[in-house]
Amino acid sequence: MAIAPPRLRLAAPVLVALLGLLAGCGGDVAAATSEDCCDTEAAETKAAAVVQELEGRNLSGIPDLTLLDQDGKEHRLVTDLIKGRRVIANFVFSTCSTVCPTLQTVFEGVQKRLGDRLGKDVVMLSITVDPDNDTVARMKAFAEDHHAKPGWYFLTGKPENVREVLYAFNAYTAKKEEHTAMFVLGNEPAGKWMYQSGFVEPSVVVRALDLLGKEQ
Prior knowledge:
Radius of gyration: 16 Å
Oligomer: single chain
Mean pLDDT: 79
Order of helices and strands: HHHEEHEHEHEHEEH
Helix content: 25-40%
Low-confidence stretches: 1-40, 42-59
CATH superfamily of the domain at 69-211: Glutaredoxin
CATH topology of the domain at 69-211: Glutaredoxin
CATH class of the domain at 69-211: Alpha Beta
């Protein structure tokens, strides 16, 4: 039976979702240039549908499941990592050689700009889309490749747990190569969540995170 947990409802403009969908439409160069991948009209329709589905979500839709970080330590996703913090999450896998290095390079820049905030009021989550193959050892090497500091968690775990988390963030895909290139930004205390294209300057991500949940 297919997993169908409650979905995370993220407040996000259609344009932001569209940018992410277009950026993440495929796991390799061929896919990124294919008609199916980058059909703008189809992507726009999908983005609008996603945003409509995700409007108004709160933390109750994120499953508080146990995942493993790159050191093999168990964490309950909500209780241990998200609760009371701002969150930046992306969805990657350790053997990806196309879009993932770019996404993780942006995350490295975000890490640098966060400075001492990382691991305190802000956490960064890189969640595998390939839990069947991304062991703790692989995630450890992946984290080391990108100079991850405490507060940047490379998460794997039981495939059923990881899949349910991916479903909750609307990041699940049957083919790992087709994973999204969007980031999810959250301000848990304010109950605000949004999508952000992963192909932006790190400063843009940090600025968006800081503004999320503040009165405009």
